Amino acid sequence: MDAIETEGCRQCGNCCRAPGYVRLRPGEPEAIAAALTITVEHFHARYTRLTADRRGLSLIEQADGACVFLQDDNRCHIQAVKPGQCQNYPSHWRTPLLDSNCPRFAASRGTTDDAPVFSALASHN
Question: What is the pLDDT of residues 5-63, one digit of tens each?
């Protein structure tokens, strides 16, 4: 992560628990598979699914809706090769839903709550 991404991040993992897709761009499955030391085919079979619009692949979720690569300590298992969508939040894109659950933006909401709220939401896209 660069300074823009990490500045103010409390590593709560809420952004990794948000409902929605983590779409994979060309080259990302290969990079992740290499980092995991598995074949691309194994990566596709174990960690991806076809998006509902059938236009691409997305990472799967854990049973509680969190990203499959979110660890118990709220860190990303594939940090060095995480998808561009993840790398670019919140420095290049943001949404009201993610911002409303991010302690980094708590001051603008007048709260300091770190509790992950996405686990209560249906993790469906």
Answer: 456 778 888 889 988 899 999 999 999 999 999 999 999 999 999 999 999 999 999 99
Query: Terminus-to-terminus CA distance in the chain, angstroms?
Result: 27
Q: Report the 10 Å Cβ neighbour count for 103.
A: 18
Q: Give the SS3 label for residue 68.
A: coil
CA 7 to chain centre: 18
28 residue type, one letter: E
What is the C-alpha to C-alpha distance for residues 7 and 17, in angstroms, rounded to an integer?
Answer: 20
User: Alpha-carbon torsion 116, 120, 122, 123, what sign?
Assistant: positive
Candidates 85, 81, 26; CA nearest to 55 is: 26
Half-sphere exposure (CA, 13 Å, Cβ side) for 30? Answer: 3
Contacts of 43 by beta carbon, 8 Å cutoff, 6+ apart: 29, 32, 33, 36
Pairwise CA distance, residues 62 & 122, whole Å: 12
Q: What is the pTM of this model?
A: 0.77
